[in-house]
Amino acid sequence: MTSSTDGESEEKCGLTVVSGSHASSNSPANDTLDKVTSGKLAVLRQQHRELDEEILAIITAGAHDQLHLTRLKKRKLMLRDQISRIEDDCVPDIIA
Predict the structure, then answer these.
(1) What is the predicted pLDDT for the residue at 11?
(2) pTM to 2 decimals?
(3) Which pick of 58, 79, 84, 94 has the fewest CB atoms within 10 Å?
(4) What is the per-residue pLDDT for 61?
(5) Range of the domain at 86
(6) How far is CA 34 from CA 26, 39, 56, 63, in A?
(7) How many folded domains does the chain comprise?
């Protein structure tokens, strides 16, 4: 691994990785960030499951308010988007 004089670029396996900090991926700050991100993902997934169960219960009951059901489905989709965004941010972009 080589660093440039400014310390913002590292070369790994022939690829240049640019970062704004000198911290390694195992630093306490990154561990805390990973824990926070994992915790946030767990909460979002739990909320998504709960909405799914609520939607299913409303549909199964038969008589339901279509507007309320639509709002629940929209909220569920927004949660799914947030989950996907966070997961995508955790996976580095690979330039092929």
Answers:
(1) 40
(2) 0.60
(3) 94
(4) 86
(5) 27-90
(6) 10, 8, 33, 43
(7) 1
